[in-house]
Amino acid sequence: MKDIVIIGAGYGGLRALEYLAKEKNFKITLIDKNPYHYMQTEAYGYIAGRFDISDIAIDLNSFVKGLGDNVSFIKDKAIKIDKEKQILTLQNQTIAFDYAIIAVGAQTNFFSFIKGAKEYTHGVKNIQRAFEFRQAFEKRLYLKLEEKKLHRNGDLHIAIAGAGLSGVEIAAEMAHTLKKYEKILSKESITLKISLIDAAKTILPGMDSYIINKTEQRLKNLGIQIYTNAFIQEIKERSIYFKDGTKVDFDFIIYTAGIKAAKFIQEIQTEKNNIEQIIPDEYLHLQGSENIFCIGDCTQIKSQEKLLPPTAQTAEKSAQYVAKAIIAKTKNKSYPIFKAKIDGYFVALGGNYAIGMLYEKIKVEGYLAYLLKKLITRVYRHGLEIKVNAGYKKR
Fold first, then answer.
1. Looking at domain 2-33+76-108+259-342, which of 3.40.1010.20, 3.50.50.60, 1.50.10.10, 2.40.110.10 is its CATH number?
2. What's the CA gap between 34 and 134, in Å, rounded?
3. What span, in angstroms and rounded, lies between the C-alpha atoms of 208 and 364?
4. Which residue has the higher pLDDT, 387 or 242?
5. Where are the beta strands (DSSP E) in 150-221?
6. What does the longest C-alpha to C-alpha distance in the chain come to?
7. pTM (two decimals)
Protein backbone atom coordinates (compact mmCIF):
# COMPACT_ATOMS: atom_id res chain seq x y z
CA MET A 1 0.00 0.00 0.00
CA LYS A 2 1.50 3.31 -1.11
CA ASP A 3 0.67 6.51 0.79
CA ILE A 4 -0.02 9.50 -1.45
CA VAL A 5 -0.80 13.02 -0.30
CA ILE A 6 -2.38 15.66 -2.51
CA ILE A 7 -1.95 19.18 -1.16
CA GLY A 8 -4.68 21.41 -2.54
CA ALA A 9 -8.23 20.73 -3.76
CA GLY A 10 -8.34 22.94 -6.83
CA TYR A 11 -8.88 21.77 -10.40
CA GLY A 12 -5.55 19.96 -10.53
CA GLY A 13 -5.78 18.36 -7.11
CA LEU A 14 -9.22 16.89 -7.74
CA ARG A 15 -8.33 15.60 -11.21
CA ALA A 16 -5.25 13.81 -9.83
CA LEU A 17 -7.35 12.39 -7.00
CA GLU A 18 -9.96 10.98 -9.37
CA TYR A 19 -7.31 9.17 -11.42
CA LEU A 20 -5.38 7.80 -8.46
CA ALA A 21 -8.46 6.68 -6.50
CA LYS A 22 -9.02 3.92 -9.05
CA GLU A 23 -5.81 2.22 -7.86
CA LYS A 24 -6.86 0.24 -4.78
CA ASN A 25 -3.27 -0.31 -3.66
CA PHE A 26 -3.01 3.43 -2.98
CA LYS A 27 -4.00 5.15 0.24
CA ILE A 28 -4.67 8.74 -0.78
CA THR A 29 -5.09 11.76 1.48
CA LEU A 30 -6.43 15.03 0.10
CA ILE A 31 -5.53 18.10 2.14
CA ASP A 32 -7.01 21.59 1.93
CA LYS A 33 -7.57 24.41 4.40
CA ASN A 34 -11.13 24.80 3.10
CA PRO A 35 -13.90 22.17 3.22
CA TYR A 36 -15.00 22.97 -0.33
CA HIS A 37 -13.70 23.01 -3.91
CA TYR A 38 -14.02 26.49 -5.42
CA MET A 39 -14.91 26.60 -9.13
CA GLN A 40 -13.05 29.83 -9.71
CA THR A 41 -13.66 29.82 -13.46
CA GLU A 42 -17.31 30.59 -12.66
CA ALA A 43 -16.54 33.46 -10.27
CA TYR A 44 -17.58 36.06 -12.86
CA GLY A 45 -21.18 34.83 -12.74
CA TYR A 46 -21.29 34.65 -8.95
CA ILE A 47 -19.95 38.19 -8.46
CA ALA A 48 -22.49 39.55 -10.94
CA GLY A 49 -25.34 37.79 -9.13
CA ARG A 50 -26.06 35.34 -11.95
CA PHE A 51 -24.93 32.23 -10.04
CA ASP A 52 -25.52 31.17 -6.45
CA ILE A 53 -22.79 29.97 -4.12
CA SER A 54 -23.99 26.39 -4.72
CA ASP A 55 -22.99 26.86 -8.37
CA ILE A 56 -19.33 27.52 -7.53
CA ALA A 57 -18.64 25.31 -4.49
CA ILE A 58 -18.46 21.53 -3.99
CA ASP A 59 -18.35 19.83 -0.56
CA LEU A 60 -15.05 17.96 -0.29
CA ASN A 61 -16.04 15.51 2.44
CA SER A 62 -18.89 14.12 0.36
CA PHE A 63 -16.81 14.17 -2.83
CA VAL A 64 -14.00 12.17 -1.25
CA LYS A 65 -16.35 9.62 0.31
CA GLY A 66 -17.85 9.07 -3.12
CA LEU A 67 -14.48 7.99 -4.51
CA GLY A 68 -13.92 4.97 -2.28
CA ASP A 69 -12.59 3.76 1.05
CA ASN A 70 -8.95 4.25 0.06
CA VAL A 71 -9.40 8.04 -0.06
CA SER A 72 -9.69 10.48 2.86
CA PHE A 73 -9.88 14.24 3.32
CA ILE A 74 -8.16 16.35 5.97
CA LYS A 75 -9.22 19.96 6.47
CA ASP A 76 -5.95 21.52 7.60
CA LYS A 77 -3.33 24.01 6.51
CA ALA A 78 -0.11 22.71 4.97
CA ILE A 79 2.96 24.32 6.54
CA LYS A 80 6.03 22.67 5.02
CA ILE A 81 7.24 19.57 3.20
CA ASP A 82 10.46 17.64 3.91
CA LYS A 83 11.54 16.02 0.66
CA GLU A 84 14.33 13.98 2.23
CA LYS A 85 12.27 12.48 5.07
CA GLN A 86 9.08 12.50 2.96
CA ILE A 87 7.02 14.12 5.71
CA LEU A 88 4.35 16.78 5.29
CA THR A 89 3.79 19.09 8.24
CA LEU A 90 0.28 20.46 8.70
CA GLN A 91 -0.90 22.97 11.25
CA ASN A 92 -2.30 20.21 13.49
CA GLN A 93 -0.40 17.04 12.52
CA THR A 94 2.30 15.47 10.36
CA ILE A 95 1.85 12.90 7.56
CA ALA A 96 4.42 10.54 6.07
CA PHE A 97 4.10 9.81 2.37
CA ASP A 98 5.53 7.76 -0.47
CA TYR A 99 4.41 10.27 -3.10
CA ALA A 100 3.20 13.84 -2.84
CA ILE A 101 1.47 16.16 -5.30
CA ILE A 102 1.76 19.88 -4.61
CA ALA A 103 -1.35 21.56 -6.04
CA VAL A 104 -1.87 24.54 -3.75
CA GLY A 105 -2.76 26.98 -6.52
CA ALA A 106 -2.13 30.71 -6.47
CA GLN A 107 -3.16 33.80 -4.59
CA THR A 108 -3.83 37.36 -5.69
CA ASN A 109 -0.62 39.29 -6.22
CA PHE A 110 -1.21 42.68 -4.62
CA PHE A 111 1.83 44.38 -6.10
CA SER A 112 3.80 46.27 -3.48
CA PHE A 113 4.31 49.20 -5.88
CA ILE A 114 0.53 49.84 -5.93
CA LYS A 115 -0.15 51.53 -2.62
CA GLY A 116 -3.52 50.60 -1.09
CA ALA A 117 -4.25 47.69 -3.45
CA LYS A 118 -4.74 45.12 -0.71
CA GLU A 119 -6.62 47.45 1.63
CA TYR A 120 -9.25 48.82 -0.73
CA THR A 121 -9.91 46.17 -3.38
CA HIS A 122 -11.85 42.92 -3.67
CA GLY A 123 -10.16 39.85 -5.17
CA VAL A 124 -11.68 36.70 -6.65
CA LYS A 125 -9.04 34.07 -5.82
CA ASN A 126 -11.11 32.85 -2.88
CA ILE A 127 -14.82 32.62 -2.14
CA GLN A 128 -14.67 34.86 0.92
CA ARG A 129 -13.47 37.93 -1.00
CA ALA A 130 -15.92 37.28 -3.85
CA PHE A 131 -18.72 36.92 -1.30
CA GLU A 132 -17.76 40.18 0.42
CA PHE A 133 -17.90 42.07 -2.86
CA ARG A 134 -21.26 40.61 -3.81
CA GLN A 135 -22.69 41.56 -0.39
CA ALA A 136 -21.38 45.11 -0.62
CA PHE A 137 -22.65 45.56 -4.16
CA GLU A 138 -26.12 44.19 -3.42
CA LYS A 139 -26.34 46.38 -0.32
CA ARG A 140 -25.66 49.43 -2.47
CA LEU A 141 -28.43 48.45 -4.86
CA TYR A 142 -30.76 47.88 -1.92
CA LEU A 143 -30.07 51.39 -0.65
CA LYS A 144 -30.99 52.70 -4.09
CA LEU A 145 -34.28 50.83 -3.95
CA GLU A 146 -34.87 52.51 -0.61
CA GLU A 147 -34.26 55.82 -2.43
CA LYS A 148 -31.30 56.69 -0.24
CA LYS A 149 -28.64 58.94 -1.67
CA LEU A 150 -25.76 57.20 -3.43
CA HIS A 151 -22.19 58.40 -3.71
CA ARG A 152 -21.66 61.25 -6.22
CA ASN A 153 -25.25 62.16 -7.06
CA GLY A 154 -26.43 58.74 -8.11
CA ASP A 155 -23.40 57.39 -9.95
CA LEU A 156 -22.46 53.79 -9.32
CA HIS A 157 -19.01 53.12 -10.74
CA ILE A 158 -17.22 49.74 -10.64
CA ALA A 159 -13.52 49.65 -11.47
CA ILE A 160 -11.69 46.43 -12.36
CA ALA A 161 -7.91 46.47 -12.09
CA GLY A 162 -6.54 43.82 -14.43
CA ALA A 163 -7.77 43.00 -17.94
CA GLY A 164 -6.75 39.36 -18.13
CA LEU A 165 -9.33 36.59 -18.48
CA SER A 166 -10.85 37.01 -15.00
CA GLY A 167 -11.07 40.79 -15.22
CA VAL A 168 -12.61 40.77 -18.69
CA GLU A 169 -15.22 38.13 -17.81
CA ILE A 170 -16.21 39.93 -14.62
CA ALA A 171 -16.46 43.27 -16.42
CA ALA A 172 -18.65 41.84 -19.18
CA GLU A 173 -20.99 39.96 -16.84
CA MET A 174 -21.29 42.94 -14.49
CA ALA A 175 -22.05 45.28 -17.41
CA HIS A 176 -24.71 42.92 -18.75
CA THR A 177 -26.25 42.62 -15.27
CA LEU A 178 -26.12 46.35 -14.62
CA LYS A 179 -28.04 47.06 -17.82
CA LYS A 180 -30.91 45.02 -16.36
CA TYR A 181 -30.65 46.90 -13.04
CA GLU A 182 -30.69 50.18 -14.94
CA LYS A 183 -34.13 49.39 -16.35
CA ILE A 184 -35.46 48.58 -12.89
CA LEU A 185 -33.78 51.41 -10.97
CA SER A 186 -34.50 54.17 -13.51
CA LYS A 187 -31.82 55.37 -15.89
CA GLU A 188 -32.52 59.00 -15.03
CA SER A 189 -31.73 58.63 -11.33
CA ILE A 190 -28.63 56.42 -11.45
CA THR A 191 -25.64 56.08 -13.78
CA LEU A 192 -24.14 52.59 -13.77
CA LYS A 193 -20.70 52.31 -15.32
CA ILE A 194 -17.67 50.02 -15.39
CA SER A 195 -13.99 50.73 -16.06
CA LEU A 196 -11.50 48.01 -17.02
CA ILE A 197 -7.87 48.93 -16.35
CA ASP A 198 -4.58 47.29 -17.31
CA ALA A 199 -0.94 48.30 -17.63
CA ALA A 200 -0.51 46.13 -20.74
CA LYS A 201 -0.90 47.44 -24.29
CA THR A 202 -4.10 45.44 -24.83
CA ILE A 203 -6.72 43.56 -22.87
CA LEU A 204 -6.20 39.78 -22.61
CA PRO A 205 -2.41 40.07 -23.09
CA GLY A 206 -0.90 37.00 -24.72
CA MET A 207 -4.12 35.80 -26.35
CA ASP A 208 -4.83 35.53 -30.08
CA SER A 209 -5.55 38.86 -31.84
CA TYR A 210 -8.95 37.55 -32.99
CA ILE A 211 -10.01 36.98 -29.37
CA ILE A 212 -8.63 40.36 -28.28
CA ASN A 213 -10.33 42.35 -31.03
CA LYS A 214 -13.72 40.63 -30.75
CA THR A 215 -13.66 40.95 -26.95
CA GLU A 216 -12.78 44.63 -27.07
CA GLN A 217 -15.64 45.26 -29.47
CA ARG A 218 -18.09 43.42 -27.20
CA LEU A 219 -16.91 45.29 -24.09
CA LYS A 220 -17.33 48.66 -25.80
CA ASN A 221 -20.83 47.66 -26.94
CA LEU A 222 -21.62 46.94 -23.29
CA GLY A 223 -20.53 50.47 -22.40
CA ILE A 224 -17.32 49.52 -20.61
CA GLN A 225 -14.56 52.12 -20.47
CA ILE A 226 -11.23 50.43 -21.27
CA TYR A 227 -7.93 51.84 -20.01
CA THR A 228 -4.75 50.22 -21.39
CA ASN A 229 -1.14 51.32 -20.84
CA ALA A 230 -2.56 52.58 -17.54
CA PHE A 231 -0.14 52.29 -14.64
CA ILE A 232 -1.83 52.49 -11.25
CA GLN A 233 0.26 54.21 -8.59
CA GLU A 234 -2.15 54.27 -5.66
CA ILE A 235 -5.64 53.13 -4.71
CA LYS A 236 -7.58 54.94 -2.03
CA GLU A 237 -11.02 54.23 -0.58
CA ARG A 238 -12.89 55.77 -3.52
CA SER A 239 -10.22 56.76 -6.05
CA ILE A 240 -7.50 55.38 -8.32
CA TYR A 241 -4.41 57.50 -9.01
CA PHE A 242 -2.35 56.79 -12.13
CA LYS A 243 1.34 57.51 -12.64
CA ASP A 244 0.54 60.11 -15.29
CA GLY A 245 -1.35 62.15 -12.69
CA THR A 246 -4.91 61.31 -13.73
CA LYS A 247 -7.52 60.15 -11.26
CA VAL A 248 -10.59 57.91 -11.57
CA ASP A 249 -13.27 57.75 -8.86
CA PHE A 250 -15.16 54.53 -8.12
CA ASP A 251 -17.62 52.97 -5.68
CA PHE A 252 -16.26 49.41 -5.83
CA ILE A 253 -13.04 48.02 -7.18
CA ILE A 254 -12.20 44.41 -8.08
CA TYR A 255 -8.54 43.44 -8.31
CA THR A 256 -7.50 40.80 -10.85
CA ALA A 257 -4.14 42.28 -11.85
CA GLY A 258 -1.95 39.26 -11.19
CA ILE A 259 -1.19 36.08 -9.28
CA LYS A 260 1.64 34.63 -7.27
CA ALA A 261 2.15 31.17 -5.81
CA ALA A 262 0.47 30.33 -2.50
CA LYS A 263 2.27 30.97 0.79
CA PHE A 264 3.09 27.27 1.29
CA ILE A 265 5.46 27.48 -1.70
CA GLN A 266 7.57 30.12 0.06
CA GLU A 267 8.73 27.50 2.58
CA ILE A 268 10.06 25.17 -0.12
CA GLN A 269 13.73 25.61 -0.98
CA THR A 270 13.81 25.19 -4.75
CA GLU A 271 14.13 27.22 -7.94
CA LYS A 272 11.22 29.63 -8.51
CA ASN A 273 10.24 32.27 -11.04
CA ASN A 274 9.48 35.95 -10.44
CA ILE A 275 5.94 35.25 -9.18
CA GLU A 276 7.23 32.52 -6.82
CA GLN A 277 5.96 29.57 -8.85
CA ILE A 278 7.99 26.37 -8.53
CA ILE A 279 10.13 25.59 -11.56
CA PRO A 280 9.98 21.76 -11.82
CA ASP A 281 11.99 19.45 -14.04
CA GLU A 282 10.60 18.15 -17.34
CA TYR A 283 8.75 15.36 -15.47
CA LEU A 284 7.04 17.92 -13.17
CA HIS A 285 9.12 16.66 -10.24
CA LEU A 286 10.08 19.06 -7.51
CA GLN A 287 13.74 19.45 -8.37
CA GLY A 288 15.83 17.07 -6.27
CA SER A 289 12.96 14.66 -5.58
CA GLU A 290 11.40 12.05 -7.86
CA ASN A 291 8.59 11.37 -5.37
CA ILE A 292 7.18 14.89 -5.16
CA PHE A 293 5.31 16.37 -8.13
CA CYS A 294 4.08 19.92 -8.75
CA ILE A 295 0.99 20.86 -10.78
CA GLY A 296 -1.40 23.74 -11.41
CA ASP A 297 -1.05 27.45 -10.75
CA CYS A 298 1.69 27.07 -8.13
CA THR A 299 3.96 25.71 -10.85
CA GLN A 300 5.62 27.17 -13.92
CA ILE A 301 4.53 24.55 -16.43
CA LYS A 302 6.24 24.15 -19.79
CA SER A 303 5.60 21.79 -22.66
CA GLN A 304 8.40 21.48 -25.20
CA GLU A 305 9.89 24.75 -23.89
CA LYS A 306 6.58 26.59 -24.34
CA LEU A 307 5.01 28.13 -21.26
CA LEU A 308 1.42 27.05 -20.64
CA PRO A 309 -1.00 29.59 -19.14
CA PRO A 310 -2.05 29.15 -15.49
CA THR A 311 -5.58 27.94 -16.25
CA ALA A 312 -7.87 25.16 -15.05
CA GLN A 313 -7.12 23.27 -18.26
CA THR A 314 -3.36 23.39 -17.63
CA ALA A 315 -3.92 22.26 -14.04
CA GLU A 316 -6.00 19.28 -15.15
CA LYS A 317 -3.60 18.22 -17.91
CA SER A 318 -0.63 18.35 -15.54
CA ALA A 319 -2.65 16.44 -12.91
CA GLN A 320 -3.56 13.68 -15.32
CA TYR A 321 0.07 13.32 -16.38
CA VAL A 322 1.34 13.17 -12.78
CA ALA A 323 -1.27 10.58 -11.77
CA LYS A 324 -0.18 8.35 -14.65
CA ALA A 325 3.48 8.93 -13.74
CA ILE A 326 2.91 7.81 -10.14
CA ILE A 327 1.07 4.69 -11.29
CA ALA A 328 3.95 3.91 -13.67
CA LYS A 329 6.55 4.40 -10.92
CA THR A 330 4.80 1.97 -8.58
CA LYS A 331 4.89 -0.63 -11.36
CA ASN A 332 8.58 0.08 -12.11
CA LYS A 333 7.68 1.38 -15.55
CA SER A 334 9.21 4.36 -17.30
CA TYR A 335 7.15 7.37 -18.32
CA PRO A 336 7.73 10.19 -20.83
CA ILE A 337 8.43 13.83 -20.10
CA PHE A 338 5.42 16.10 -19.73
CA LYS A 339 3.85 17.27 -22.98
CA ALA A 340 0.50 18.97 -23.45
CA LYS A 341 -1.38 21.33 -25.71
CA ILE A 342 -4.18 23.73 -24.85
CA ASP A 343 -7.27 22.38 -26.62
CA GLY A 344 -8.89 25.78 -26.68
CA TYR A 345 -10.39 28.47 -24.50
CA PHE A 346 -13.53 30.53 -24.16
CA VAL A 347 -14.14 34.02 -22.82
CA ALA A 348 -17.58 34.62 -21.27
CA LEU A 349 -18.70 38.10 -22.30
CA GLY A 350 -21.98 38.73 -20.54
CA GLY A 351 -25.35 37.04 -20.82
CA ASN A 352 -25.49 34.27 -23.42
CA TYR A 353 -22.49 35.50 -25.36
CA ALA A 354 -18.89 34.25 -25.52
CA ILE A 355 -15.83 34.14 -27.75
CA GLY A 356 -13.77 31.00 -28.24
CA MET A 357 -11.00 29.30 -30.14
CA LEU A 358 -10.49 25.54 -30.47
CA TYR A 359 -7.22 23.86 -31.41
CA GLU A 360 -5.73 27.23 -32.43
CA LYS A 361 -7.82 27.19 -35.62
CA ILE A 362 -11.57 27.07 -35.07
CA LYS A 363 -13.08 30.43 -34.12
CA VAL A 364 -16.45 30.55 -32.38
CA GLU A 365 -18.48 33.49 -31.12
CA GLY A 366 -21.89 34.46 -29.81
CA TYR A 367 -24.49 32.05 -28.50
CA LEU A 368 -22.75 28.95 -29.90
CA ALA A 369 -19.55 29.79 -28.03
CA TYR A 370 -21.59 30.38 -24.88
CA LEU A 371 -23.27 26.96 -25.25
CA LEU A 372 -19.93 25.22 -25.73
CA LYS A 373 -18.46 26.93 -22.67
CA LYS A 374 -21.48 26.01 -20.56
CA LEU A 375 -21.34 22.42 -21.80
CA ILE A 376 -17.72 22.09 -20.67
CA THR A 377 -18.60 23.51 -17.25
CA ARG A 378 -21.67 21.31 -16.85
CA VAL A 379 -19.78 18.15 -17.81
CA TYR A 380 -17.09 19.02 -15.26
CA ARG A 381 -19.58 19.82 -12.51
CA HIS A 382 -21.76 16.79 -13.29
CA GLY A 383 -18.74 14.53 -12.81
CA LEU A 384 -18.10 16.07 -9.39
CA GLU A 385 -21.76 15.88 -8.37
CA ILE A 386 -21.96 12.15 -9.09
CA LYS A 387 -19.21 11.57 -6.52
CA VAL A 388 -20.69 14.09 -4.09
CA ASN A 389 -24.11 12.41 -4.19
CA ALA A 390 -22.55 8.96 -3.74
CA GLY A 391 -20.51 10.20 -0.81
CA TYR A 392 -23.43 12.03 0.79
CA LYS A 393 -25.40 8.78 0.95
CA LYS A 394 -22.55 7.14 2.86
CA ARG A 395 -22.38 9.85 5.53
1. 3.50.50.60
2. 20
3. 13
4. 242
5. 155-161, 191-197
6. 72
7. 0.86
